[in-house]
Inverse folding.
């Protein structure tokens, strides 16, 4: 029970812990827990090898367990006997097939820190099916064999050991229970298989958040049926010698339900296979990267050809996986037969837990040292060996004087089970050694460097290469040669390009700095492990020793640099934005400037035209004394009218400018729109008569009161009516229609006559537009009238548009029904 | 009698030019835009055309280009009269083949002298 509760309790701390571990691993291209711990304590080859050994020692029995359950259930389901000879045991071949498959499938990528999405998807699918099958089995046992949960517990109560199994057994039991909880909690972080799936295969940090609710839910559903099945089995097989681990297959088989027992077999089989595969992959990475390659095999990668080297790495891993599984099988065959699944599993957990102090110390404690870590782990493992492994395999040892001695029994805590007892003592001694020795040894600069990098990973995550301290002499070309040997020419060049881009490096100098060294080590780490990467790089560089205070100083500087960098990049992005804004403003100004130029050109042109007439006329009048009186009068009249025109243009320009700058204030008040229109029309009526034009009005309004500036509206009406007067054909007509449409007052002033060319429609309200477009008949006005009308209407929250109709042109003036908001100066400045 | 065409869309400007050139002894033809000029040229071969640039329907530039295509009008002189006074405008007018480019407002006296000079 505690085995399942532990993970559920520890899961919430995942968010914090795992995101930290994931970041550290990603930044350093870490591919196993041995890399993780070894790198922290000075990228130590020996420490990571020790850790790899501990893992292998702990996990091979675990693999053996899986093989055991595969082979036992296999025999159970096929109803065959377990053969004593390996060669004639059918399960041997099943295991060999699994081993071959794993070694092929697990080594598709050379870079061990690479993500294998396929495997993870397979595991996910396997877990899902296992759950479904288990739920089916649970339902079968509870409702098919028994009559629901109550029935099982009623019958179970009669069993002799029911009470004992369902309580904590007082304080002593609770202490036992608590230690088991601790054990499973540390296992979920430290098991190579867990580390691999949770850290190395993690693609996005936010996936942790999903895992936090999904994983406990998964375990809870599982636990929901574990007890009924276990008790059901006890009831059914009471008094018989039956392994309780096989209840799940035996119960359906007893009732002849082959379907369900097969289902459960496959669920269990796939689960075991996936555990074997993942475990062996993670172990093989450690075996190859932390033991085989750094100890001896490195010299074998002499080939200049990266494919050869890659092939040897892959082969090492393939053979490792195969050997690991096979040794698991041998372990099972010769050492494990007949032992309980549960206790062997727990021994594995206790062994793995020995990595705990160094592991958690790596993340939280800067003072932890190599010496502390190594001594803690070695002594812890030794204790496990003495207390758990030896006694269970060697009867002689149990009988020996040493084991029976006073010394040994001194440490025996009577109420603890042997496993929790050893867990307790080994962890106590391990942690104590780790802390005491660490506190009394001085870490070397490399350890201190990584200590900072691990504990404060969030400070360095961006440009972590900056935080790596290295002094000495190194050449880019030498390092590059090594990279090519493992990555190939193309990938190396690509990687260097990325590096140069990241740090803005443009100079061609051959001197490698600390960033480049760390970068190169990372590139190699994924393939051959951090320790071997360091050894390879060390081979072509000459490193100077740095004192500890120097390390701390450099780190402090780099932290400052990073924060300064952050500030700088913030400032530069602000500047960039500012310069963007300025550019836009500049473009706007240039555009405005151009508009102003065009406007001035137009103004000059408009002013010169009447001026030309005035000048020429005056010149003629001056020179020509014998001009007929009648003609003389006409010419003088022209001078007057052209002078008036000049003045009108000047007035309009000034007026438009005031409208644009908003210096004219609107006097918006409630007015009767019909009355206002009549006021506008009155002074023009005689012109209508002169030209024999007919004017009519159509009123469709319920309400005639609107809010607007009356003087401005009169100006707009007169302008549009004046325009209509100019362009209406002889005997034509002008019609003004008042109506309400879409909550707006709409006034259409329509005149018969020539329509406006389509291409001119959208420009007609532009300043001087008429004079610029040669296709448009020139009006007598300033060329600013319509532009002024548009400005006035928009300032009153209204609008004015023009539309061609079948036999003429219609100007449509809009005013909002509710014109409450008096527009401010900005709104008028359009 | 030399024939002169006055092309402008401003009535009051036409009045002055018409008076001045009639008095100077020319036969004067009036056109209010480019299309009227081209219409006129179908029947008349004038000695001089005074051409405004900014006219409705067909502008002065297009009118001149049409004139240049007509071989019958090889000897006809063209002067642009325009309120467009920018250097670029003047250059463009002369490049199109106008004999002169006179900016508005002009002196009637100088204009008539220039016309006479070109027609010598």
């Amino acid at each position: 029970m505690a085995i399942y509760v532990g993970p559920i309790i520890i899961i919430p701390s995942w968010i914090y812990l795992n995101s930290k571990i994931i970041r550290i691993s990603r930044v350093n291209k870490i591919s196993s827990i041995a890399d993780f711990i070894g790198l922290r304590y000075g990228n130590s080859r020996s420490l990571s090898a020790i850790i790899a050994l501990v893992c292998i020692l702990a996990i091979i029995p675990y693999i053996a367990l899986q093989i055991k359950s595969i082979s036992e259930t296999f025999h159970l389901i096929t109803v065959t006997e377990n053969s004593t000879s390996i060669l004639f045991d059918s399960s041997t071949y099943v295991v060999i097939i699994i081993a071959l498959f794993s070694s092929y499938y697990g080594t598709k990528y050379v870079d061990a820190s690479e993500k294998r999405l396929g495997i993870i998807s397979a595991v996910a699918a396997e877990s899902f099916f296992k759950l479904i099958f288990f739920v089916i089995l649970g339902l079968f046992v509870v409702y098919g064999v028994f009559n629901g949960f109550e029935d099982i517990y009623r019958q179970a109560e009669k069993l002799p050991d029911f009470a004992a199994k369902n309580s904590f057994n007082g304080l002593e039991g609770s202490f036992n229970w608590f230690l088991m909880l601790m054990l499973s909690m540390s296992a979920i972080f430290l098991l190579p298989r867990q580390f691999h799936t949770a850290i190395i295969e993690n693609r996005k940090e936010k996936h942790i958040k999903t895992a936090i609710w999904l994983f406990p839910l998964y375990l809870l559903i599982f636990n929901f049926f574990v007890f009924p099945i276990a008790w059901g089995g006890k009831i059914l097989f009471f008094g018989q010698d039956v392994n309780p681990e096989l209840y799940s297959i035996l119960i359906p088989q007893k009732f002849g339900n082959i379907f369900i027992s097969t289902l459960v077999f496959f669920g269990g089989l796939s689960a075991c296979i996936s555990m074997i595969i993942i475990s062996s992959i993670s172990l093989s990475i450690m075996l190859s990267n932390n033991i085989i390659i750094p100890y001896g095999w490195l010299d074998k990668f002499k080939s200049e050809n990266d494919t050869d080297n890659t092939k040897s790495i892959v082969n090492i891993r393939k053979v490792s996986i195969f050997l690991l599984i096979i040794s698991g099988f041998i372990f099972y065959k010769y050492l494990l037969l007949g032992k309980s699944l549960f206790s062997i599993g727990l021994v594995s957990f206790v062994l793995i837990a020995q990595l705990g102090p160094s592991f958690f110390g790596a993340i939280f404690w800067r003072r932890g040292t190599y010496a502390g870590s190594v001594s803690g782990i070695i002594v812890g493992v030794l204790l496990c060996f003495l207390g758990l492994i030896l006694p269970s395999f060697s009867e002689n040892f149990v009988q020996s004087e040493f084991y029976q001695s006073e010394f040994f029994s001194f440490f025996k805590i009577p109420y603890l089970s042997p496993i929790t007892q050893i867990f307790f003592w080994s962890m106590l001694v391990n942690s104590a050694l780790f802390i005491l020795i660490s506190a009394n040894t001085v870490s070397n600069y490399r350890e201190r460097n990584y200590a900072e990098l691990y504990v404060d990973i969030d400070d360095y995550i961006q440009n972590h290469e900056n935080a790596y301290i290295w002094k000495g002499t190194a050449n880019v070309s030498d390092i590059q040669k090594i990279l090519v040997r493992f990555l190939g020419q193309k990938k190396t060049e690509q990687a260097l390009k990325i590096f140069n881009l990241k740090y803005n490096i443009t100079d061609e100098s051959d001197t490698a700095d600390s960033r480049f060294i760390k970068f190169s080590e990372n590139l190699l780490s994924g393939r051959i492990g951090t320790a071997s990467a360091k050894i390879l790089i060390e081979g072509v560089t000459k490193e100077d020793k740095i004192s500890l205070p120097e390390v701390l100083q450099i780190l402090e500087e780099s932290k400052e640099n990073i924060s300064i960098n952050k500030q700088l990049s913030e400032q530069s992005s602000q500047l960039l934005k500012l310069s963007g804004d300025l550019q836009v403003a500049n473009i706007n100004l240039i555009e405005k400037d151009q508009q102003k130029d065009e406007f001035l050109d137009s103004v000059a042109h408009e002013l010169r035209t009447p001026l030309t007439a005035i000048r020429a006329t005056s010149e003629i009048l001056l020179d020509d004394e014998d001009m007929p009186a009648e003609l003389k009068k006409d010419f003088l009249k022209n001078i007057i009218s052209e002078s008036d025109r000049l003045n009108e243009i000047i007035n309009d320009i000034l007026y438009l400018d005031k409208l644009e700058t908003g210096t004219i204030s609107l006097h918006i008040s409630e007015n009767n729109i019909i009355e206002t229109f009549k006021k506008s029309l009155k002074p023009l009526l005689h012109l209508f008569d002169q030209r024999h034009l007919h004017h009519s009005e159509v009123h469709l309004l319920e309400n005639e009161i609107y809010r607007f500036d009356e003087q401005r509206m009169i100006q707009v009406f007169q302008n549009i009516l004046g325009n209509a007067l100019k362009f209406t054909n002889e005997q034509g007509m002008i019609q003004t229609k008042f109506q309400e449409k879409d909550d707006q007052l709409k006034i259409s002033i329509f005149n018969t006559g020539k329509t406006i060319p389509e291409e001119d429609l959208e420009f007609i309200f532009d300043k001087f537009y008429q004079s610029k477009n040669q296709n448009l008949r020139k009006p007598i006005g300033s060329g600013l009238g319509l532009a002024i009308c548009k400005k006035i209407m928009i300032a009153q929250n209204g609008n004015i548009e023009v539309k061609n109709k079948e036999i003429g042109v219609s100007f449509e003036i809009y005013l909002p029904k509710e014109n409450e908001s008096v527009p401010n100066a900005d709104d008028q400045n359009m | 009698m030399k024939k002169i065409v006055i092309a402008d869309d401003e009535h009051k400007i036409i009045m002055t030019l018409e008076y001045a050139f009639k008095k100077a002894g020319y036969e004067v033809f009036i056109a209010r835009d480019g299309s009227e000029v081209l219409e006129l040229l179908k029947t008349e071969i004038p000695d001089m055309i005074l051409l405004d640039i900014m006219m409705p329907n067909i502008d002065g530039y297009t009118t001149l280009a049409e004139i240049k295509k007509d071989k019958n009008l090889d000897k006809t002189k063209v002067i642009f009269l325009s309120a467009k006074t920018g250097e670029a405008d003047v250059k463009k007018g002369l490049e199109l083949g106008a004999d002169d480019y006179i900016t508005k407002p002009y002196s009637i006296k100088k204009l008539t002298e220039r016309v006479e000079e070109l027609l010598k």
In short: Chain B has five helices and five strands.
